[in-house]
Amino acid sequence: MIIFRKVFQLQDWIKARRNEGLHIGFVPTMGALHQGHISLTEGSKDECDITIVSIFVNPRQFNDPQDLIKYPRPIENDLHLLLKNEIDVLFLPEVEEIYPADQKLNLDFDPGLLGSVMEGKFRPGHFAGVAEVMYRLLTIIEPDRLYMGQKDFQQVAIVKKLIADQHLQARLIMCPTLREPNGLAMSSRNLRLSPQARIDAALIYATLTESQKSFENDIPIEEIKQRAMETLTRKDFKPEYFSIVDGTTLADIGNKKDSRFVVACCAVSVEGVRLIDNLIWTKNE
Q1: Which residues form the active site (predicted)?
Q2: Residue 102, Cβ neighbours under 10 Å: how many?
Q3: Do the annotations mark residue 155 as ligand-binding?
Q4: How many CA atoms lie within 13 A of 155 on its CB side?
Q5: How many whole angstroms separate alpha carbon 220 and alpha carbon 238?
Q6: CB–CB of 34/186 below 8 Å?
């Protein structure tokens, strides 16, 4: 595995690989890697000649400064995992490589409703930071394929729009969420949960699956959401939202007939650790 810290060195290497006719897959991460991230790299390795992983804790997408400070950075573990899984390239830049002081990033991008609901509502400024870093990474690397996880469904929707609006070449591949045996979505933030909270947090996925049964049994949407919020309100749990939306527009749906692509998304704070999850209920696009 080759490690690049400088943009120009990475781009020179990529140019040489392009001249050889090789296709490049890219997996952007913020480190604290787990099997969910590795599943993204496996998708890339299956479909591309070269797999590049980036580790960059993007300061611009943290609306809470404490969240940035607390974000886990186990770089030695990350390196071991990437080496074990035979990743070709790791891009490990400092902040000034991504956001040079002498260059202003003039990104003209408005995600619209995609960026103002759910995470956009509860984390103001978050998606502006996501769009900036993804635009930078995609213009630096110019991958053929970009691999992202379904767990960050709203982020995937916004990056898909970013690629289209900015006429970037990458094809975005959304990979299924990997879960712990109890159903908890794999996340770097899980490292901050106590052992008991990690067990209890299985309630999030259980609520999504039970709510899907209610949806299939024609229980009214508002009642499903209310029940879910009540279920997720317990000791050490603080739900922020439980939304049932159209998977393309992220607009709330009022009943089953409003959309052929229905996704339930939620955010819950467990022991002060903010966790998100989602489940695709129907997809007949």
Answers
A1: 37
A2: 5
A3: yes
A4: 24
A5: 24
A6: yes
Sheet containing 237-246: which strands, arranged edge to edge? 237-246, 261-270, 273-283
Rounded distance between C-alpha atoms, residue 275 and residue 285, angstroms: 28
Q: Check the annotation: does 116 bind a ligand.
A: no
Cβ-Cβ contacts under 8 Å for 146 (sequence gap 6 or more): 25, 26, 28, 138, 159, 163, 170, 171, 172, 173
Judged by DSSP in three states, 284 sits in coil
pTM above the 0.85 mark? yes
The encoded tokens of residue 64 equal 């809470």
Q: What type of residue is 60?
A: R
Q: Name all domains of the chain by residue range, CATH numbers in brackets.
A: 2-175 (3.40.50.620), 188-278 (3.30.1300.10)
Choose, from 37, 80, 126, 167, the residue flagged as catalytic.
37
Q: Does residue 37 have an active-site annotation?
A: yes
Q: How confident is the prediction along the chain (285 residues), in pLDDT tens digits per residue? A: 999 999 999 999 999 999 999 999 999 999 999 999 999 999 999 999 999 999 999 999 998 888 899 888 999 999 999 999 999 999 999 999 999 998 888 899 999 999 999 999 999 999 999 999 999 999 999 999 999 999 999 999 999 999 999 999 999 999 999 999 999 999 999 999 999 999 999 999 999 999 999 999 999 999 999 999 999 999 999 999 999 999 999 999 999 899 999 999 999 999 999 999 999 999 985
